[in-house]
Structure formats: C-alpha cells, structure tokens
Amino acid sequence: EGKNLIKDFEVNSNSLKKSKMRAINDVSFKMYKSRGLAVVGESGSGKSTTAKMIAKMYPPTGGHIEHYGRDIAEITKHRDLMQFRQGVQMVWQDPFGSLNPTHTIFHHIARPLLIHKKVSPSNKKELEEKVYSLLEQVGLIPPKATAAKFPHQLSGGQRQRVNLARNIAVGAEVVLADEPTSMLDVSIRAGVLNLMEEMKFEREMALLYITHDIATARYIAEDLAVMYVGHMVEWGDTEEIIHDPQHPYTQLLVSAVPDPSKSIHTKLKGNKGEIPLWTPESLGCPFAGRCTHAMDKCREKLPEISQLSDNHFVRCYLFEN
Ligand code: SF4
Ligand code: MG
Question: Do residues 243 and 236 make contact, with C-beta atoms less than 8 angstroms apart?
Fold first, then answer.
C-alpha cells in the first residue's frame, strides 16, 4: 500500500543552479494477493519510479509505503531486508539484462533456491528436481534440455519465462513487472501475460503490471491506475474504467485503442499537446495544457480526489461537487 507518495529528483537544468523535478505527486494505491494492478501512462509519467519505490530501490521524498502494515523505510536489518527482497521481486523490460550470459539456465534457477535456502546445497538430486519442475511450470519444456542452455540460446519470451521461474523459486509475494513484454514479439506476448496471470492466482501473488498499453492491462489486472506526469488521474476497476473512462486524459488514452479486446499493440496517437515538466512549485492539474475542458482553477490548484463508485476514483474538477 502506497500512501501519498512524493518523489523529487535533482536535475541539472543549467550549470549555475540545481533544480528539482517532481516525478511523483501525491500518489496512493493498494495491492492485494492474487490481484493485479496495472499502471498505465506514457513514458515519464512516473510508472517505473512508483515500482522502484515499492521495491525499496529508493526512498520516497514524502509519504510512505506499507507492507503488511509496516513502513518499508523501517526495514533496515540485514535479515529483514533479505526477506523483503525475496518477497518483492521485479521483472524488467529487457529479459536479457537480468540474466548472466556466462551461466546456464540451470544456474540461474538454482542460485536463488540456494541463496534463499529453499533447497539444501548437499542434496543435488532435490535441487535438480526443483529446477526442472520450475522450468516446467513456466512452460520451458523439455526442462532438462532448457536447463543446459545459456541465455543467448533462448528467445526473448523464453528468457522472460526464466525470470518468472526465478520469482516463483524464491516464493515472491509481490511481483513488479515493468513493461515485461514490450521488447517481445507481439506473437509471444500473450503467452507471457497468461503465465503471469496463472502465477497471480496459483501463487497468490500481488502483481503490479506497468505498461503504456491500456489494452494489455485488462488481461491480467483487476485494478487500473492511469498516470499522467507523476499524478494518478484515474484509478479503480479496470473494466469500469475502460468501458466508461471519466478523466479527460483516460478518455484520450482509451479512444486511442479502438477495440481493446483485440488490439494489444496500439500506441497513443493524436493530440500530443504540451507535456509539462513538473516541479515542486508547479500548480494545478497536470493535464490542463492539453485538456479541452480546462478552467481557470485547473491551472491554480491540484484537484481533490472524487469517488465515482465503490472502486472508481478520479482527480479532476469536472467531478467535484
Ligand atoms: Fe481538465 Fe481541469 Fe479536469 Fe484537469 S482538472 S482534467 S484541466 S477539467
Ligand atoms: Mg519506464
């Protein structure tokens, strides 16, 4: 659960003075077991920054993240950190980046099992069986032959499956997938997404799925959050939002995907407008520069959150009463 998160970064705007950029502004969300949260937005909207804060890769400037009710900033002891990192795993865009080209697939799966003491190092047979069973579970068959290969001998989709097998190996409870299929061929994307969907239910994982493609979000995410320039502008039930988008930016995103059930590779087109650079001093609604409904107050103060139904929220003046 993220509460009122803020993240500022220092940027070198010119040689004389340092300035700050606000990458995340007042973002809150919840994740649940066996449930997916898709975070959708253009590049630079703060999606990856959000995931990295959840993974404790860097601390928020404001607000906090709770894991089973505990502020993750307070997890500092080595043992607790190890346990946290085991439970909260990331899957990156580039399935090759996280694999070591000089090691076999067997080694890649065996290593996390040994590090996190899932198997005793002296029991070679048990280790082998465990590795093969994991490879089988992620659809890499025959497992024995796959295990003997090196990463470059696998396709991008197979490599991403190896990464997912490693997440299962350590018993990850939270998987943060940052555009996991964007570098894969369109034809194999659905297979990787289906596997993540299976992991979500069978392993009771909480899944964060980051994408710039709203259509793939409904594959594996019950909840959807739309981000724009570091703000969550609309969030809630995925189907409700896709069928009946309320925020002007979400409407633009959804209208860019004519048939979300078929198209999984449609890019946002049309009205690009001016995307603002947000700073701690910026005021108003981040979408004001592109919004056809913009009013004076939209440029003066960030709108409050309005609740539209049980699980549907929006941050826009059109919905304030
Ligand atoms: Fe448009 Fe104003 Fe709503 Fe922002 S708050 S989306 S500018 S109407
Ligand atoms: Mg990104």
Answer: no
Residues whose CB falls within 8 Å of the CB of residue 124, separated by 6 or more in sequence, listed in order:
none
pTM of the full structure: 0.89
Q: How far is the CA of 179 from the centre of ligand 2 (A)?
A: 7
| Greatest Cα-to-Cα distance within the chain, rounded to the nearest angstrom | 70
3-state secondary structure of 28: strand
Instruction: Name the 3-class secondary structure at 205.
Output: coil
- Best residue for ligand 1 mutational test, from 226, 271, 318, 320 (most atoms within 8 Å of Cβ): 318
pLDDT digits (tens, 9 = 90+) for 158-167: 999 999 999 9
Mean pLDDT, residues 261-286: 66
- Specify the CATH number of the domain 2-97+174-187+204-304: 3.40.50.300
User: How far apart are the C-alpha atoms of 76 and 79, rounded to whole Å?
Assistant: 8
* Angle value at C-alpha 223, between 6 and 211, nearest 5 degrees: 70
Query: How far does residue 313's CA lie from ligand 1's centre (Å)?
Result: 14
Residue boundaries of the structural domains of the chain: 2-97+174-187+204-304
Question: Which are the contacts of 42, defined by CB distance < 8 A and separation ≥ 6?
Answer: 212, 228, 268, 275
